[in-house]
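User: I'm putting together a teaching handout on how multi-component assemblies are represented. Below are the sequence lines for each component of a complex, exactly as they appear in our records. Could you produce the 3D structure of the whole assembly as structure tokens, so the students can see both representations side by side? Please keep the chain order the same as the input.
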Amino acid sequence: MTGSAGHAGGEAVAIELVDVVAGYYADQPILRGLELACAAGRVTALLGPNGAGKSTALRVMVGLLRPAEGRVLLFGEDVTGRSAHELARLGVAFVPQGRSAFPELSVQSNLELGAWTLGRRRRREAVDAIFDRYPSLRDKRKVPAGRLSGGQQRLLEISRALVADPRVVVVDEPSVGLSPILAERSYEELRRVKAEGRTVVLVDQNVRPAIALADYIYSLRQGRAERAGRPDELAGDLTELVREWLGVEHVQRAPSGGAVGPADAPGWGTGEKDEKEQVG
Amino acid sequence: MTTVLQVVITGVLLGLIYTLIGAGLTIVLGVLRIVNLSQGILVVIGSFLAFDLFVRWGIDPILSVLILIPVFFVVGALAELLFVRVPARDSSSRAMLVLFGLMMVGEAVATLAWTTDSRSIAVGYANGSIAFSGIVVPEDYLIMAGVAIAVLGLTELLLYRTMLGKALRAVGQNRQAAEVLGIDSAWMATVVFGLGTALAGAAGAALGVLFPFSTQLDSQWLAYSFIVVLIGGLGGVRSSLVGGLALGVGQAVFSQVLPLDIVPVVLYGILAAALIVRGGGIGLARVRRI
Amino acid sequence: MSTTEVRVPPPARAPGRGQLAVPGGERLWARVGWAVFALGIGLLAAFGATTGQLGTLRVATTVLMYVVLTEAWSVLGGFGGYLNFGMAMFFGVGAYTAAIVSNHAGIPPLATVVACGAVAGILAVVVGIPSLRLRGAYFAIVTFVLTLAIQQLVSVLGITNGALGLYLKPVSMSPRASLELYFFIFLGGAVAATLLTRQLARSRFGSALVAIREDEDAAEILGIPTTRVKTLAFVLAAVIAGMVGCVYASQLYYIEPTGTFDFAISLNVVVGAIVGGVQSWVGPLLGAGTTQLLSQELLTRTQGVEGNLVLGALLVLFARFVPGGIVGVVRRRGGTKVTV
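Assistant: Of course. Below is the structure of the complete assembly, with chains in the same order as your input.
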């Protein structure tokens, strides 16, 4: 299943994966010849059952995982094998799954580090701009990030990714671990990011908001793109696809129903107070 | 007649210097999750170099600290680049094996260079003491504690007030999150290792004034730095302070009460106990980081 | 120590042979190894019985002693991945038990060998159960510190005569015969230890240890009794070290804390294992042999500091550049893929 032909169709391509084979162990590839293209300024969603390689694909895109085979292109430039910090300088921002704020650093310090790739002068302006945009963060600028509520941390993580004015924002599971209200807030922020003209690539187990936001969808299965298309193109099959993804997911989901993964690392500040706290 | 207060004050001064040794270990451990097993021999080499600088060129150890810090920083950075970086990608155990080997090599080379004889840096103020309101405090302890405070203070400033320091701490708290912000974590590893080494060298210079030292002392300093880390935790300079003071005061108190031979055994026993009680917790997300 | 090509069997499988699926070239390599092994034993035995070079005989005895120690170490240290720096501790305890018991009971030191192993084993249980809860480096550090502590302790205790040491009753034989005796004891011990380790490697016990090294949490979830397995492996190494210490004490007939609890003993064992390659029972054999021959060569020429220098340098070089040890290099050349 190819990516670019039906999708970009004239639009510039922000990120492209060409025949990528990648995995964490040499003999166990997770991505087996994945091809996809994310149009610039659009939202591309990677959906599929657990183990399909969605998060792995994101990691390859942002430089956290080097593909064993294949190429990664950023706005046409071959960046295969470049490390994450190099790609950050090229304007790729990543919001990882789970908690990624630096827990012992203050909100302000977290944001300042978000501006690491800018010079000292621009850094202050950039951080101030974020505080203007999210006044609740300014109120808590000195608070260690680990002490924020789940929703506020998520807000911090997203805003930290935006400080350096990235061209591309890659988000791994924006809503997982959050209550529905806060998940919706996360997506509000992503809509805003898209409205600013940035490219968004995301993965989410909560397929409905992802489908609602997406301009283009890739359905991944066993490390390959099985289906792809705009939401309206896939409309009929979408119900069946969703059932397929969720059906598989229900079997594999942990009994608590919550996120499985580093989101629950103990000691990273207070537990979820999402019901009471507001984002933004 | 030594009063309790005097013992405690002496212990506190000593503890400040022990904090120096511990801080180097804590910072590297907190950021890289690697125990720098060469810490002990670095301290010893620091003492010997300060000794040579003093004996040959009359440079006071206080000044030597200023010289040794950059020298040790470079040495540590090089060591990380050459010996630690590749193994650390594989596993921290492998990196620590290399560091352990470097400790052995360092000890052997130091013994070849300086023999196993005991030395001491006999500065003018080594035997002086200062008295106030009935308490007598050794002058060298006071001065070296001052040096320790200065070095620790600068380190604290570096870690908490500069962007570099924040980046280092960020790498320790979530390496991948730091990478995606544009921070070259491999480079940060080199810097932090150099920093830890520099602190060890400075500590060596200070300790060389207070205690006789030999190339055989590296195990003891390594063990002491562990005690500081285990009692204080991984919170950088601040927690090292807790651990260092506890160790300093503890040693001072034990030395009054127990025969000197047994004191090291007691301290090692405390270390082993602390390791067993605490050790499972260090390195997990549970513990406060710098 | 990260990825290797090892598969871990779930416990639901029938008991019996574990499955240490080592890459393809193992079978040929094993046959060659057996032949060399048998030949080697034969040659050594002949050498021991007939040689006139007493110095070489002494060196060979030491090498064999370290083969025993390193093979025993490798069960927990190699397969299990828990670096045990405490071999000197158990070795010394064995030596001192031999001295104390044989002197008080009036029996030859060699006869106490079982008691020595037992005492070392008990110490290992006492020390091991709390220590083995620690992972990776912390376990290594605890064993390191405890060795230091016990050395200090023994220097000051009365029963051990402090720093003055103890004398044992030597075997009543000619020097030549006694050298031969100890040579053959250690030769037998080396063969036994190597075969035992090999057997353990192929057993479920060995698979369990490898599983623990790969991912201890996963192993626990699979139902492997990790604490019990680790403790057994630790105790095994300790018991053997204690017995070796007893024989050593008997041979030297004078022991004192610095030499008997010398950390260099632990170091020699660990370096030998790393140099040889920790992932195979052949590794300790090759590694201990190589390391000891090297350091013994140097010992005869220098005062001993250089011995540690070489050991440290070997450790640095191998851990940094050749993590699979000699075994790893040979396997890679043989075309079979090994990731370490």
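A couple of points students might notice: DSSP finds 14 helices and two strands in chain C. Confidence is low (pLDDT under 50) at residues 1-22, 335-340 of chain C.
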